[in-house]
Structure formats: structure tokens, C-alpha cells
Design goal:
Elements (H helix, E strand, L loop, with lengths): L1 H29 L8 E4 L2 H6 L7 E4 L5 H34 L3
Helix pairs in contact: 1-3
């Protein structure tokens, strides 16, 4: 029973990271036309997991906000979120089948 629990924790962490990345990207897009606005970046998912799955961290990067780069980051965050939902549903389905037992 240990593997599904850790899988659910990892999947939950991926969803939290994707949501945080999505918020950072939308903030960047909202400030893209402001002169001197610094881009917000989010630590990688791997770094978040290495720190024990704590909440993801954002930090300012002194570079110009590029709409194209932010749109790619938004797509990446959406794909990560979709992957976490797919893994979550698959894990719950496996638990449901295991709980039903042999027929």
C-alpha cells in the first residue's frame, strides 16, 4: 500500500507546482507591457521534490518579460497539470480495482 500513497503525494505535488507556475506566468503576462518589470520564475519541480515537496518558490529574474516565452511556459504548466490529473485518476482506478478483490 506504500507505493500508491507516495504516488498520490507526488501527483499532488506536481499539481501544486503546475498551479504555482500558472499563477507566475499569468502575473508575468499581466505585467509584460510595464517598463522595468522583472519576470517571475518558479523553481523546477525536481528542486521542489528534493526539498521534500514543500510549496514551490517564486523568484524575480532581472530579464525582460517575453510574451512568447510566457505562452510556452503557460503551455508547459497546463501539460504538467493535465499529467498530474491523469496520474491521479489512474492511481485511484488501480486502488478501486485492488479494493474490489478477485472476482
Amino acid at each position: 500500500m506504500e507505493a500508491p500513497v507516495s504516488t498520490l503525494k507526488l501527483t499532488s505535488a506536481l499539481a501544486r507546482h503546475a498551479a504555482h507556475a500558472h499563477a507566475a506566468v499569468t502575473s508575468n503576462l499581466a505585467r509584460a507591457d510595464l517598463p522595468g518589470a522583472e519576470r517571475l520564475a518558479v523553481q523546477s519541480f525536481e528542486d521542489m521534490v528534493r526539498r521534500g515537496g514543500e510549496a514551490p518558490r517564486s523568484f524575480a529574474v532581472p530579464e525582460v518579460i517575453s510574451t512568447e516565452t510566457e505562452m510556452l511556459s503557460l503551455a508547459r504548466a497546463g501539460a504538467d497539470h493535465q499529467a498530474s490529473l491523469t496520474l491521479w485518476k489512474s492511481t485511484l482506478n488501480m486502488l478501486r480495482v485492488a479494493a474490489a478483490g478477485p472476482r
